[in-house]
Amino acid sequence: MTDTLFETETHTFGFSTEQVHAGYLGEAGYGARITPLYLSAGFIFDDFEHAKARFAGTDLGYVYSRINNPTNAAVEKALADLEHGVGATLVGSGQAAATVALLSILQAGDHFLSAPSIYEGTRALFRGNFARFGIEVEFVEHPNDPEDWHRRVRPNTKLFFGEAIPNPKNDLIDIEAIADAAHSHGVPFVIDSTVPTPYLLRPIDYGADVVFHSTSKFLAGHGNSIGGVVIDAGRFDWAAHPDKFPHLHKPVFEEDAQGTTWIDKFGAKANFAYARAVVAGRFGTSLSPFNAFLVQQGIETLSLRLDRHTRNALAIATWLEQQPEVSSVDYPGLASNPFHALAQKYYPRGAGSVFAFTLAGGEASAKVLYDAVEVFTRMTHIGDVRSLILHPPTTTHSKLSQAARDRAGIHPGLLRLSVGIEDVDDLIADLERAFRVLRGENPPSLRGSDAAGAYTPADGL
Ligand SMILES: Cc1ncc(COP(=O)(O)O)c(C=O)c1O
Fold first, then answer.
1. How far, in Å, from the CA of 98 to the mean position of ligand 1?
2. Is the CB of 117 under 6 A from ligand 1?
3. Is residue 162 lining ligand 1, measured as CB closer than 6 Å?
4. Domain spans of the chain?
5. Residue 228: in which H helix or E strand, if any?
6. Nearest Cα to 379, choosing from 461, 297, 303, 451?
């Protein structure tokens, strides 16, 4: 198999074929069908000249697992292919992916614009950590109005940022419109596409320049590991803006003042090369090959899982909408949702499976429902095969002021679901039973009373 399998002129392979075959880079001689787990810190140099060539980059073999590793390389190739990018860098977490994606572009004194509805960890990274480096974030108020982006651009604005399916409110952004607005100012558009994954959305096809994911979620998919990835479209014209991105116009070898620059050497891939070698490589954000192997396993079943996740999510959102205690359901797959038209445009395969709903009874009702579920797991995580539930106002968003929570629509009665791949009837039965508890009824446990008896499907939940 060659790297060009999916780029033939005679046939376009489907996503499910690609997810299974993309990224296979061969192995060291035993005929293993999947790329094995190479747990080795370093890789042998045959002799003096070999070592020299590896460091000079004239021999592209592996050197040291902080920089590159065969297991990671296979997963990076697969993710770059699946996202329609030119290169990917695996890193230790989704937070590390945000850090690498943005710090490869920004430097002290820079300003950037962000959509308002983003993962709270990313917001804290931008507002706290980046501020300490002299990098200023500004949040637009109306992300789907390009004018709101345009009017905030300053001479030192260096990128636009947004989250594809914002967690937990699902207030979708119009990716194409924001990418166009960014490009009209000569800056790239960076997007966190964790919730859709490349199966539901390929942001590069809509103009995004850099895509990142927390692989901890749907890509690994089984709640077994933390990881992240940064993927570059290889399309942004970094060469045209030496004033904005001066680091890419400097020599690759810093000691050699007249040397070849990142732009000279890598062209449109300059940002990818810089992000990988200088930012990820030196900050040391590398992903363990063990976790990369788990991501590889997850990718192979991505479409199957996402089809089930999204089908279950739509059924549950539809059911929740009919419950009298529920004042709103933030799922754009519902025809009643204000973001439904965007969902139809960007997410024809399904609008994800992480969404919030709000109980009119506020925190007191949320607490009862939260404590009553038996199949949903109470946990702060998303994208797991298991269904998960969380109360953001008192957990992920608890450090915000009440006013900030109100602005973000994180009301006291809001609960977030990450809908898994279990049988949807069981998930609805679990919620139905929890709503009966909320209504003051005393429904029997789904687990039954036979705790010491034979195995039931609910064992271990
Ligand atoms: C949308 C989104 N992006 C990024 C992250 C951060 O990922 P990680 O926990 O792998 O650092 C999360 C985590 O919940 C997330 O939901």
1. 9
2. no
3. no
4. 5-299, 303-438
5. strand 228-232
6. 461
How far is the first Cα of the chain from the last one, in angstroms, to the nearest whole number?
A: 42
393-421 confidence digits (pLDDT tens): 999 999 999 999 999 999 999 999 999 99
* Torsional sign, CA 410, 178, 311, 195: negative
Give the DSSP letter of residue 288.
P
pLDDT tens readout for residues 200-240: 999 999 999 999 999 999 999 999 999 999 999 999 999 99
* Rounded Cα distance, 381 and 147, in Å: 35
Which two three-digit tokens encode residue 62?
A: 């592996």
Strand order in the sheet with 210-214: 87-91, 228-232, 210-214, 189-192, 157-163, 111-114, 136-139
Q: Which residue owns the Cα nearest ligand 1 atom 14?
A: 381
Q: What CATH code is assigned to 303-438?
A: 3.90.1150.10
pLDDT at 212 (0 to 100):
98
Which runs of consecutive H residues, i.e. helices, occur in 275-379?
281-283, 289-299, 302-321, 340-346, 362-372
Query: What separation in Å is there between the alpha carbon of 94 and the centre of ligand 1?
Result: 5
In ligand 1, the atom with minimum distance to the C-alpha of 226 is 10
The mean per-residue pLDDT over the stretch 156-180 comes to 97
CA 95–ligand 1 middle distance (angstroms): 6
CATH, domain 5-299, list 3.40.50.620, 3.40.50.2000, 3.40.190.150, 3.40.640.10: 3.40.640.10
